[in-house]
Design goal:
Elements lengths: L1 H5 L4 E4 L4 H9 L4 E3 L8 H11 L3 E4 L6 H6 L1 H10 L1 H11 L2 E7 L21 H16 L3 E6 L2 E2 L6 H11 L3 E4 L3 E2 L2 E2 H12 L4 E4 L6 E2 H6 L5 E4 L27 H13 L1
Parallel strand pairs: 1-2, 1-3, 3-4, 4-5, 5-10, 6-9, 7-12
Antiparallel strand pairs: 8-11
Helix pairs in contact: 2-9, 3-6, 5-7, 6-7
Length: about 270
């Protein structure tokens, strides 16, 4: 299967100019790229594009990722993250294109310490619900898919936790960060490289993150010096977050530890 994917003549990346999409461009330098010029919710246009290009591989990095925003804009969240996957999956099925789609740790409720690929999803916020709907719609409408669930992304070309911490650290004497939500930070450069490997594996669901479990506070402490812990109850948000959204990878070789990835990202920011 890996050899077959390696010989793919055409690759289409949707959401190509976001944080993850920008790093996917480096992995697939000859891919057809679509960003804000293509609204993922316009199903007929998406299907027409796929039929016209007839790509061997479609990578969907387009999503509405504002977790709190999804609570206030549920219709938009479900349109982008859920309903748009019906015509996309159908078009890929018709053209025989492999679809790689990115999902999230937030499809789980956080009542367990960790979740493998076979755990039953139970989202507790609109973002998680909308992303789960996307997964369901893919599985209903095609068979040659790779759903990659990931978590806590950071990288260039997009708003992320690392940059936010650095900005707040310069503006405030102390930065309060919750210490009772646990997950796995993931560097988009590493995820993009791993995507190429996953595209060559069997169809199914994959949990892909950098290794190492931490709280948001522990993550922040590795970035800035002036961080102090607080509880989720002291820092209320519109969307409820799972206490534990640790994804277990049981299908592929693990990626490096998040601390090593963070070191490289911070060095890249300096340069």
């Amino acid at each position: 299967m890996v050899a077959a994917i390696a010989q793919v003549k055409k690759v289409l990346i949707l959401g190509a100019y976001g944080m993850l999409g920008s790093d996917l461009q480096k992995v697939y330098p000859h891919a057809d790229l679509r960003g804000h010029d293509l609204d993922i919710t316009e199903g007929e246009k998406v299907a027409s594009l796929i039929n016209e290009l007839n790509p061997g591989l479609v990578i969907n990095a387009a999503a509405y990722t504002d977790v709190d925003g999804c609570e206030e804009n549920r219709n938009r969240a479900f349109a982008v993250n859920g309903e748009s996957l019906v015509p996309l999956a159908q078009a890929c099925d018709e053209t025989g294109s492999c679809l790689v789609h990115f999902s999230t740790d937030y499809i789980f409720d956080g009542t367990k310490k960790a979740y493998d690929e076979n755990e039953k999803p139970h989202p507790i916020n609109a973002y998680g619900e909308s992303k789960l709907l996307g997964e369901v719609n893919i599985r209903k409408n095609m068979s040659d898919y790779r759903i990659i669930r990931t978590s806590w992304l950071f990288g260039r070309n997009g708003k992320n936790f690392v940059d936010t911490m650095i900005m707040l650290s310069a503006e405030m004497p102390r930065v309060r960060v919750v210490n009772d939500q646990f997950g796995k930070p993931t560097y988009t450069v590493d995820l993009a490289k791993k995507t190429q490997e996953i595209a060559g594996l069997d169809p199914g669901i994959y949990h892909i993150t950098n290794e190492g479990i931490c709280s948001w506070f522990e993550f922040a402490r590795a970035i800035i010096p002036n961080v102090i812990p607080c509880s989720s109850s002291e820092y209320p948000r519109r969307a409820k977050r799972p206490a534990y959204s640790v994804l277990l990878n049981t299908k592929t070789t693990p990626m490096r530890h998040w601390k090593a990835a963070l070191h490289d990202y911070l060095e890249e920011r300096k340069s």
